[in-house]
Design brief:
The strands form five sheets. The protein has a 22-stranded antiparallel β-barrel. Helices cover 6% and strands 59% of the residues. 48% of the residues are buried. The protein is mostly beta strands. It has six helices and 34 strands.
Length: 606
């Protein structure tokens, strides 16, 4: 950890910083925090925005690699490319993160996590992350925060194709673009990645590969005053890994979302929208009949009314019907679940005062009723400084596996949380932005597998655990051409109050540093993550994973206005580290891609 301490000391003079890790221009619109497009400087909740330029510069091979260099986001990964990856937002459990693709929930109803590792960055326009509870607006799962992945708008960006190659025989190719007329827009995208990979387990020497083919399509148009949009995203492929006994196995996966939305104005001050969506998550083992499947159909309606320039009201209703099924070691499970969520919100921006109030009610077929809320208030001390305070509640309904799978208990109660945050944001000038935040999240009725005999595999799931996560988060942002820099740091204590143990796979201290320098047609970037030690699963007792420093060096050369060469040296220091006990991580590696983007034909007609 000596390198971590040196980096922390070196950055400490700069990092008096931000509840918002990424501070784009003040007029940048974000959707996830309030469910309506809102300028980022009007959002009180801590928000991260990773835009298309940052995605291209990173040369990342999946979305989780974009998240890891932001303070407050811890990753746990079971090996190499395509392996299950957990995201912990500010110390909350990984299944306390709601994940959306174009606003559609992709958290499965079976055991497992949202398949962020299967979302290829070449398909993504931007990623929005909101830290803190959002159950009042989204219902179940949004205890730690929300990750919303927005797919690309090729008709606006213009046609672009990219091919790349890197270590572990990693090959990738993509094509994105679209067509636009005065009233119609069609966006298209395809992407392919294939990697021979490396051994998933530290005690294994068999390379395990990954293949992913993804496609997206969006059709948008005007029907009179109404805006109609049909969007589809799909990823499918094969992931190889070594099981508990180090036997090479593989599984096929398929993840997809489809959404049809219609929005229309109601006079000059109101807007209504109706959306219907379909989600599928399938995983099938190729060496056994084991499988996981979730199919979810949802419909939601939302009305927003701008009462005045300083006052906006919103209300909505969401209903989902979920069918989850699985088979594991000969044990089959199936559950059909319905849930209804209603919400209202009130946004006020008057003079020095800014506030958002939200109230949600969920009627879950098996978990019962839940009432959640958010209260957010900000006060401006002049034009450059804002004090803010946030409070909210969240909940997570037990999934089908919690209720009917291994150790299943149909009587489980939802996991519930209460969250507080206070902070200050200060923009020194147009170049520098600083904020500092303190937060606390209390989570009750955590679900734990409890043994009922001397056999460790005989037991039942019960609501027995309590957790408290307290912390301080800081960052500093600098943006003045040709330099861009960001430093973020977090100190947190994610603790199980029942056992007084630190929660697993979450570092108490971490620091992120990002620096980019533009040299005209060439730009160079360095991303550094320094993470402290973490506890992880072990037998018979938990083990301690060492802290580590991960550095990625990126470069982009604009050979012509249409052609650019992008490169990344991953794990520049060749650090040997684990994100999960007994699972490997990549060694130092080089990845290069060539991108051709001839322009934006038709965009002027949009």
């Amino acid at each position: 950890m000596s390198r971590f301490l040196l980096l922390l000391a070196g950055a400490g003079c700069a990092a008096a910083a931000s509840a918002s890790d990424s501070i784009p221009s003040p007029d940048h619109l974000v959707v996830t925090a309030t469910r309506i497009p809102t300028p980022i400087d009007e959002v009180l909740a801590p928000v991260i925005v990773i835009d298309r330029d940052a995605i291209e510069r990173s040369a990342a091979t999946d979305v989780t690699e974009l998240l890891r260099f932001h303070a407050g986001l811890d990753l746990g990964r079971n090996g190499g490319p395509g392996q299950t990856t957990a995201v912990f937002i500010r110390g909350a459990e990984s299944n306390h993160t709601l994940v959306l693709v174009d606003g559609v929930r992709i958290n499965p109803g079976t055991i497992g996590l949202a398949a962020l590792q299967n979302i290829l960055p070449s398909m993504v326009e931007r990623v929005e992350v909101v830290k803190g509870p959002r159950s009042a607006l989204y219902g179940t799962d949004a205890i730690g925060g929300v990750i919303n992945v927005i797919t690309r708008r090729g008709a606006r960006d213009g046609w672009a194709t990219e091919v790349g190659y890197g270590d572990y025989d990693t090959r990738q190719a993509s094509l994105n673009g679209g067509f636009a007329t005065e009233r119609l827009e069609l966006d298209l995208g395809v992407s392919w990645l294939d990697s021979a990979g490396f051994p998933t387990r530290t005690l294994d020497d068999t390379d395990r590969g990954y293949e992913n083919f993804s496609a997206s399509a969006q059709l948008r148009g005007d029907l009179g005053p109404a805006e109609v949009a049909l969007r589809h995203w799909r990823a499918e492929g094969t992931s190889e890994y070594s099981d508990f006994f180090l036997t090479p196995v593989d599984q096929d996966f398929e993840n997809s979302t489809t959404v049809l939305s219609v929005a229309w104005p109601l006079g000059e001050a109101a807007r209504a929208e109706i959306r219907g969506s379909h989600f599928e998550d399938r995983t099938g083992q190729n060496q056994s009949p084991d499988y996981l499947r979730t199919v979810r159909d949802s419909v939601d309606a939302q009305l927003d009314w701008r009462v005045s320039k300083a006052h906006t009201l919103g209300a909505g209703a969401m209903y989902s019907s979920e069918r989850a099924s699985s088979e594991s070691y000969g044990e089959a499970m199936r559950a059909d679940t319905g849930a209804l969520t209603l919400f209202v919100q009130d946004r006020i921006d008057s003079g020095r005062h800014r506030a958002q109030l939200a109230l949600g009610y969920t009627d879950h077929e098996t978990a019962g009723d839940a009432v959640t809320w958010n209260v957010e208030y900000g006060y401006a001390l002049g034009e450059a400084t804002q004090l803010y305070g946030l409070a909210g509640t969240g909940f997570r309904a037990p999934d089908a596996t919690d209720r009917y799978g291994f150790g299943g208990n149909p009587a489980l109660e939802p996991e519930r949380s209460r969250s507080l945050e206070a902070g200050v944001r200060h923009r020194v000038n147009e170049r520098h932005a600083l904020t500092l935040a303190a937060f606390r999240n209390d989570i009750d009725d955590l679900i734990e597998f409890v043994t009922i005999s001397y056999d460790p595999f005989e037991g039942v799931n019960r609501n027995v655990e309590e957790a408290r996560i307290e912390g301080i988060e800081a960052a500093w942002e600098y943006d003045a051409a040709p330099w861009q820099a960001r430093v973020g740091a977090i100190h947190q204590d994610p603790r199980n109050l029942t056992t007084d143990e630190v929660l697993l796979r979450r570092a108490r201290d971490s620091l992120t540093v990002s620096v980019q320098r533009d040299f005209g047609r060439f730009d160079l970037g360095l991303d550094v993550l320094a993470a402290g030690e973490r506890k992880d699963f072990g037998f018979p007792q938990p083990v301690t994973l060492d802290g580590y420093v991960l550095a990625n060096l990126t470069a982009r050369w604009r050979i012509t206005p249409a052609v650019s060469l992008v490169g990344r040296i991953e794990n520049l220091l060749d650090e040997q580290y684990e994100l999960a006990h007994t699972f490997n991580t990549p060694d130092r590696g080089l990845y290069v891609s060539l991108r051709y983007a001839p322009g934006t034909p038709g965009a002027a007609a949009v």
